[in-house]
């Protein structure tokens, strides 16, 4: 059993929880994810790790209430327990295995969309701890939906915020800000985009035009999280990959986003799920 030690609401429908999971905290790395189950009968919910504290033995997760399971999860309070908290799963961010001196020479920018700002946080924190300063673009629907802006600024990141409706900071999409920065002469070596699939698709489309290396983090439907069920299948270049074991990060210029979005939509219906199950 995994105890919730803190719960906070970050924005409408977006919650942060610190969960006591010492074994996961000890081996977690930026970019990895966990699968949480509220109770025995609960659905398995994959969530990218937002932070971890090896001293306290806690792992921070951030989630948005999108359906029955996440709504149930949002009812849990500090002091309650999750039945299952499996992880860390997936591959760590590629930064972990890169030479720190080489990273310091690069101009890196993160593009964070909505609740996708949460998985950006541990990567920026890890890089800052290594002495690598980065830029971050946060895009949200409106002022209320902007999360972790102050926390990212506290890591000395240069943060640009944009809102779809212009209710805070500038008005526009993350791609508008990225294009403007590049066109104004900032030479980025690496873009990391994490957020809704459609956002990552258009960030990758833009950076392809400028030939900038781009990494995206997929958050597809997952069932077993072990590479066996095929639920999180994705086409990357000529290869078939499974986000749970091969990802969640992939080369944004190679991912077939249209197929991934079609599969995501199919999982929303019983018939679609049956069709996808027949693929295996
Ligand atoms: P959202 O719909 O509010 O979008 C966030 C920002 O993305 C927008 O403000 C905009 O700047 C940008 N964006 C959206 N559409 C765009 C387009 N067509 N072109 C360019 N930019 C665009 O985001 P949300 O509601 O917070 O997102 C929820 C989704 O994010 C869920 O589907 C969830 O699965 C996904 N998610 C992904 C990850 C991940 O690891 N990839 C993590 C958490 C959540
Ligand atoms: Fe089953 Fe990835 S979740 S293969």
From TrEMBL:
Gene: pyrK_1
Pfam families assigned to the protein according to its UniProt record, in alphabetical order: DHODB_Fe-S_bind (PF10418), NAD_binding_1 (PF00175)
Ranges of residues in domain FAD-binding FR-type: 1-95
Listed PROSITE patterns: FAD_FR
Domain of life from the UniProt record: Bacteria
Protein name: Dihydroorotate dehydrogenase B (NAD(+)), electron transfer subunit
């Amino acid at each position: 059993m995994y105890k919730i030690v803190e719960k906070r609401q970050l924005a409408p429908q977006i919650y942060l929880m610190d969960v006591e999971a010492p074994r996961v905290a000890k081996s977690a790395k930026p970019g990895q994810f966990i699968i949480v189950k509220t109770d025995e009968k609960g659905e398995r919910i994959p969530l990218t790790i937002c932070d971890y504290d090896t001293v306290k033995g806690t792992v921070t997760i951030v989630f948005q209430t999108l359906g029955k399971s996440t709504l149930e999860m949002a009812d849990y309070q500090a002091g309650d327990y999750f039945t299952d908290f499996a992880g860390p799963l997936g591959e760590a961010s590629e930064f972990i295995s890169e030479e720190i001196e080489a990273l310091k020479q690069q101009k890196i920018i993160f593009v964070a969309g909505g609740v996708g700002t949460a998985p950006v946080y541990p990567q920026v924190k890890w890089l800052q701890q290594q002495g690598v300063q980065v830029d971050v673009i946060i895009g949200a629907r409106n002022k209320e939906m902007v999360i972790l802006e102050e926390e990212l600024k506290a890591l000395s990141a240069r943060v640009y915020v944009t809102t779809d409706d212009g209710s805070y900071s500038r008005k526009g999409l993350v791609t508008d800000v990225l294009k403007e920065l590049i066109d104004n002469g900032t030479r980025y070596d690496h873009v990391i985009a994490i957020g809704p699939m459609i956002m990552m698709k258009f960030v990758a489309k833009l950076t392809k035009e400028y030939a900038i290396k781009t990494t995206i983090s997929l958050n597809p439907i997952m069932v077993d999280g072990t590479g066996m069920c095929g639920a999180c299948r994705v086409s990357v270049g000529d290869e078939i990959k499974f986000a749970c074991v091969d990802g969640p990060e992939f080369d944004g210029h190679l991912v077939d986003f249209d197929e991934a979005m079609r599969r995501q939509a199919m999982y929303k219906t019983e018939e679609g799920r049956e069709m996808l199950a027949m693929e295996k």
